[in-house]
Amino acid sequence: MPRSVLLRLGLMLPLLSGCEYAGLLRPSVIEQLDPPVARLVNELPNVDRPNEGIVARLYATGGLGHAEPGPDGVMRIEVWAVKGQLIWRPAIISMPHGGELELIFHNPDDLHHAALMPSNGDRQVLQLPIHASGAVRIRLDQPGYHWFGCPVGNHAGRGMLGLILVKGEVPPDARLDRPPQPQPKEE
């Protein structure tokens, strides 16, 4: 690599250190970018417009939000239907542990939406008329991934999906019975 390119990269590195994208440059992340993942990363910019080669946006373009515990112990987060885009923002919600979660939904869109939410094996539906807001309280006690979406029309099929990530340890009586798996070695 030419010296001038290395010098430019060296000068840009301090500017990128506070940037969210800089985390992608870590060797542990780069080695995970195998061809299928690299194709996905390269395809994401092409899914911004509905009715193109891939319909609408992937849920991941809605970003990440963290549910914050309130003084009453209930975790809360606000979720927005993005006007004209059929996505939730944030589309991925992280809970620090299992428990009660209150989601305050806002619909500034000119379309009627709804939120079909998981709740400890059950489902709850919140209707979101045009230009309205509402709240739904759910309970997710176990760690894992829980999907939610808009069941109106084909909104979920066009990208209006979300994911709730509940962090924490799985209780011993709920763990899968499988041998320890080999882990990659840290360098």
Q: Tell me the Rg in angstroms.
A: 20 Å
Show unreliable segments.
Answer: 51-56
Average predicted confidence as pLDDT? 79
Strand element count: 11
- How large is the share of residues in beta strands? 25-35%
Distance between the termini: 25 Å
Q: N-to-C SSE series?
A: HHHEEEEEEEEEEE
CATH architecture classification name of the largest domain: Sandwich
CATH class wording of the largest domain: Mainly Beta
Structural class comes to alpha/beta
Overall, the morphology is globular
**CATH structural fold name of the largest domain:** Immunoglobulin-like
Helical element count? 3
Number of self-contained structural domains: 2
Helical content, roughly? 10-25%
Largest sheet: 5 strands, mixed
The CATH homologous superfamily name of the largest domain equals Cupredoxins -  blue copper proteins
Structural summary, described in words:
This protein has 187 residues and is α/β, with parallel strands linked by helices. It folds into two domains: 30 residues, no CATH class; 110 residues, Cupredoxins -  blue copper proteins (Immunoglobulin-like), CATH 2.60.40. 14% of the residues lie in helices and 33% in strands. The strands form three sheets. Strands 2, 3, 4, 6 and 9 form a five-stranded mixed beta sheet that branches. Strands 1-5-11-10 form a four-stranded mixed beta sheet, with no helix packed on it. It has a two-stranded antiparallel sheet with strand order 7-8. A hairpin with a 6-residue loop joins strand 3 and strand 4. About 3% of the residues have low confidence.
